[in-house]
Amino acid sequence: MMLVELKILGLVVLGAIFGGIIGFDRELADKPAGIRTHMVVAATSTLLISLANLILPNLEINMDLVRTDPIRMIQALITGITFLGAGTIIRNKSNIEGLTTAASLLFVAAVGVTVGLELFVLAIGLTLINLLILRGVKVFSERFLPS
Question: Given 3-state DSSP classes, what are the helix, strand and coil percentages for the chain, each rounded to the nearest 5?
C-alpha cells in the first residue's frame, strides 16, 4: 500500500508542476490567480482522481445495490473550481476582468484529472496548448484585432 501512496504523491507533484507552468504564465501577466493557485488546483484535481481510482475498484459492496459513477468526481471538481474561478472575475463599469484566469483554473483542474488518470502525454500536450492559447493568441489579438 505504501508504494501506491508514493505513486499518488508523485502524481500530485506532477499535477502541481503542470499547473505551476500555466500559473507562472498567469503570474507574469499579473493576474489574480497565479502560480500557487494553479498549482493547488491541479494538484487537488490529481489527488481526488487518483483517490477515486483507488477507491472504486476496492469497494466491497454489493454492486447490485449501489451504483457508482466515476464521472461524479469530475463533476464535483468542475463545480468547485468554477466557484473558485468566479472569485477571480471582477466587473468594472466598462469591462469584465478575470474571465481568462477563471477559465485557466478550470483548465488546470482538467490537466490534474488527466495526470490522475496517468495520461502523461495528454497532460503535457494540454499544458502546451493552454500556454499557446494564453500567450500566442494574446500576441495575435493585440497585433491584428482592434481594441
Answer: 75, 5, 20
